[in-house]
Design brief:
Strands 7-8-9-10-11-12-13-18 form an eight-stranded antiparallel beta barrel. Strands 4-3-2-1-5-6 form a six-stranded antiparallel β-sheet, with no helix packed on it. The protein has a two-stranded antiparallel ribbon with strand order 14-17. The radius of gyration is 43 Å and the shape is rod-shaped. The chain folds into two domains: 71 residues, Roll (SH3 type barrels), CATH 2.30.30; 175 residues, Porin. It is α+β, with helices and mostly antiparallel strands. Helix content is 15%, strand content 53%.
């Protein structure tokens, strides 16, 4: 009988020494017997006859069982809700689409060099005086930023009305529309139609924008190429009474050049939401 009691005490001692070890995220450990593990809780006993304790899995780092096996607990990611999905979709669309349309505007001033050609001749005839080929320019730029890429580059649509020649007592209006692209660093390129008293043409623009605090200062070089025009040859008949016949003469075509224009324009922009 004494031997049976001794064996029972030995087995109880071994069982109590071979316990599960629950390691918490705060660094402490709890020894006991794990009873049940649910989706978010762990139930265990500290002693064989003691009460059942419950602890959240988020507080537990790892459990080392009596047989040496270990189980690690990590925080499960919260399931995506409709609101989360909608927000993610919206954000993705905004990243791909770029930001909404923004409008900017600001004054412009500069000067233009007029190359010799028919455009200058038209203005000379219009004002009945010789127009100085270097004229000042004053105006306003209306800019719409239609999209902005992830790297900061943006697409632009611009309209620039200008008045030139005021220093000569002249009123020389012009209007230019541009479609352009600006990089994140401020370098921009554009082209579009332009119309003035000298005629209509296509302009090419290049420039850069510099920021000082919240103010942007653009500097642009605008080039309007000379347009070459050649009239078709014409036929003329002259009557000769001596021979009672008509003599045909040919008038050759005439080639003319409208003249180039180069403008340097500076200013500053302010944003209009």
């Amino acid at each position: 009988m004494k031997n049976l009691i001794a064996i029972a005490l030995l087995l109880f001692t071994i069982k109590m020494n071979a316990q599960d070890i629950i390691k918490l995220k705060n660094g402490s450990e709890i020894k006991g017997a794990v009873i049940e593990i649910t989706s978010d809780q762990v139930k265990f006993k500290k002693t064989q006859e003691g009460p059942i304790y419950t602890m959240a899995k988020t507080d537990i780092e790892m459990i080392t069982y009596q047989n040496g096996k270990q189980e690690t607990f990590t925080e499960a990611k919260a399931p995506a809700t409709a609101a989360t999905t909608a927000t993610s979709t919206t954000t993705a669309k905004e990243d791909d689409a770029l930001e909404p349309v923004k409008r900017y505007g600001g004054p412009r001033l500069g000067f233009t060099v007029l190359g010799p050609g028919t455009s200058n001749d038209k203005m000379d005839n219009l004002f009945n005086r010789r127009v100085n080929p270097v004229i000042t320019q004053f105006g306003w730029q209306f800019e719409t930023r239609i999209f902005t890429l992830k790297d900061g580059s943006s697409g632009l649509v611009e309209f620039v009305p200008m008045i030139g020649g005021l220093e000569q007592g002249l009123f020389l209006p012009s209007a230019t529309g541009l479609i352009g692209f600006r990089t994140k660093s401020g370098i921009e390129l554009g082209m579009g139609p332009s119309i003035s008293l000298g005629g209509a043409s296509v302009v090419f623009a290049a420039g850069a924008s510099f920021k000082a605090g919240k103010v942007t200062f653009p500097v642009n070089l605008v080039f309007l190429p000379s347009i070459t025009k050649t009239t078709l040859p014409s036929t003329n008949y002259v009557y000769d009474p001596a021979t009672n016949t008509s003599i045909m003469t040919t008038i050759p075509g005439v080639t003319s050049h409208s003249g180039y224009r180069v403008s340097l324009v500076i200013g500053f922009n302010s944003r209009k939401d």
